């Protein structure tokens, strides 16, 4: 498992300026919690009352959390997906640096009342504290440096990283939210859908004989040929598709970065592509109109599929996975 920042956010992560006044304000707000907080979501399936606590093993050791948390704040897209998937509507959440809205693949009815608390990896402590949370979900790779400040606001459950560890992270989120029973149902549904997609491809042998690549165009960076140690790589592994040899050269298993002049290295039977940022500035349009791109096997055979970056790359959860699997099956069998 590889610890990496979400692509591009690692380049845009800003240093948090939190002076003594900001921290004091955050702690003051945290200490003024209502005795009757509004529910963060459906609490069915939870054990005990909000007055009791449970112990959760986290990346920062054991953390005492409410047995039935009511006001949850999530600080990354994976945590947001987990909460919504498990039937919990957070009171606050971060958004990506490129957009002010929450991911559109999530039901609008479940995100419309969530209060934005800043960008991923740069949440506002004051905004978080103002929501009077009783639980915060995030990861060390996003907010490790601010664990002390966050934990003074509310019990903070951190996983180590994001991306390829998304399944393990989901289990931690489920335990923190008291939703282990619901989590088992989610996993069963996912396994059933994966098997269905593999069968739609012609079975395990045919799926394994089809090399699939994922190419991401990123504004301000080189083109990324995704390896196997990331969210989308794990989905392809579950389906059982083949992966081109170039994926074994990915740095830390995450991605093999190339210039437009070397895009021929991305060749595969099937190529999925997405763009982070403006397609013109990311080089998507220019590269895909080039002779090198048009000469790729996938391009010649009309097996290049453009997909939504916020779903396929940034979703990092079971709700996103369900939609990706559905779209993958449709595109691969049309």
From TrEMBL:
Predominant subcellular localization, coarse grouping: other
Keywords per UniProt: Signal, Transport
CDD domains reported for this sequence: FhuD
Composition skew (Low complexity), residue ranges: 33-51
Localization (cell): Cell envelope
Region (Disordered): 33-63
Residue span, Fe/B12 periplasmic-binding domain: 71-334
Cellular component GO terms, alphabetical: outer membrane-bounded periplasmic space
An example Gene Ontology biological process: iron coordination entity transport
Family classification: Belongs to the bacterial solute-binding protein 8 family.
Protein name per Swiss-Prot or TrEMBL: Iron-siderophore ABC transporter substrate-binding protein
